[in-house]
Write a structure and sequence with these properties.
By secondary structure, the protein is of the alpha/beta class. It contains 14 helices and ten strands. The chain has a single domain, classed as TIM Barrel (Alpha-Beta Barrel). The longest helix has 18 residues.
């Protein structure tokens, strides 16, 4: 790992305590013209001013880390738009746009504020062997191709997100390794306290630890609402303590629960709810906090204010989280009580996912 970059991330954590990441890409682009089914990555070339404006809005809202518009930037995802040959072009452009926005950040007193650029790398959209037809080696190759393009474009770290299987975690981290950039890896805990492929937060730590590749941070993103992400972070923190490790934990929750209104998906989370979430998930153990689907710059600004005013407290009780953010699945509750078995989460809660997970970072 590149010591300079790792030291930069560590320095910001030391200076600021908790870092604020950005919010959604896709759902914010829908508001300025992106159509359902379109590839947001095309906009890095076709509408770069809109992408850079979104990045700047998150910087101005107080984000310490912004993610590139490249969630669907592997050859597998771009092939859905007959553009698998454009991996280098689209990812390099994504990195350059975010880099410009980050480098223009002001501290409000005439100086420059340090903002990191994270290269977003979402899942391939394929089921990997042995359950599917795509090999881990082929997926690793695709992730490596994307990671190299993001590095050429100037990102500070590589951000692997919304992963769900052990095989794809292995492929993504393996593909991102070797470039001298810190790696962040987050999974989507969206199925009764587990990923859609059955991993608990504790399983996730075990898979990553078994790879023998150093990563900078691990966490949870997307999912089924802020309450479930707080529970996931508490479960990650508990699993890490049991394993005698202390990884940097990352939380990037969806902005409430999505509903279909007048032909579009709307997330019901208010700025006040996301501000509440920021403080609670920080107390649960997250050192990097942001929003995922539905999270606007207005939400992020509220989270900035909340984190700046937050007095650290103990890990929140389950009922505190439920009261302030919403219900937690039976599976996550069982894990918080120390029961990691499938049986422990078998009673009906919100376990079968109240909504279908979005196919790309919102």
């Amino acid at each position: 790992m590149n010591a300079r970059m790792n030291d930069r991330l560590t320095r910001l954590l030391d200076e600021r305590g908790t870092l604020l990441a950005d919010g959604a890409i896709g759902t914010n682009l829908f508001a300025v013209g992106l159509e359902t089914g379109d590839s947001p990555e095309f906009w890095n070339i076709d509408h770069p001013e809109r992408i850079e404006a979104l990045h700047r809005s998150f910087v101005e809202a107080g984000s310490d880390i912004i993610l590139t518009n490249s969630f669907g930037g592997t050859r597998f995802r771009l092939a859905l738009h007959d553009s698998d040959q454009r991996v280098a072009e689209l990812n390099e452009a994504a990195a350059r746009l975010a880099r410009r926005a980050a480098d223009a950040a002001s501290d409000g007193a005439g100086g420059r504020r340090d903002v990191l650029v994270a290269g977003s790398m979402g899942p391939t959209g394929e089921i990997l062997e042995p359950n599917g037809t795509v090999s881990v080696a082929a997926a690793r190759e695709a992730f490596a191709e994307q990671a190299a393009a993001l590095a050429r474009g100037g990102v500070d770290l590589l951000w692997l997100e919304t992963l769900s299987s052990a095989e794809e975690i292995e492929a993504a981290i393996g593909g991102a390794a070797g470039l001298g950039l810190p790696i962040v890896c987050t999974v989507s805990i969206d199925t009764n306290g587990r990923t859609m492929m059955g991993l608990t937060p504790a399983d996730t730590l075990g898979v990553i630890g078994g790879l023998g590749i150093e990563i900078a941070a691990v966490g949870s993103n997307c999912g089924v609402g802020a309450a479930e992400v707080v529970a996931a972070i508490a479960n990650l923190a508990g699993a890490a303590a049991a394993a005698n490790t202390a990884p940097i934990l990352v939380a990037k929750a969806n902005c409430g629960i999505p509903t279909w209104q007048q032909g579009r998906i709307v997330y019901d989370g208010t700025p006040e709810l996301m501000a509440d979430y920021a403080g609670l998930v920080s107390d649960a153990g997250a050192r990097i906090v942001g929003g995922c689907c539905g999270t606007t710059p207005t939400h992020v600004a509220a989270m900035r204010t909340a984190l700046d005013a937050h007095d650290p407290g103990p890990t929140p009780e389950v009922e505190t989280v439920v009261t302030r953010l919403g219900e937690i699945s039976q599976g996550a509750r069982a894990q918080l009580a120390g029961d990691l078995s499938l049986a422990g989460g078998s009673a009906s809660g919100r376990g079968e996912r109240s909504s279908r997970r979005r196919s790309r970072r919102g």
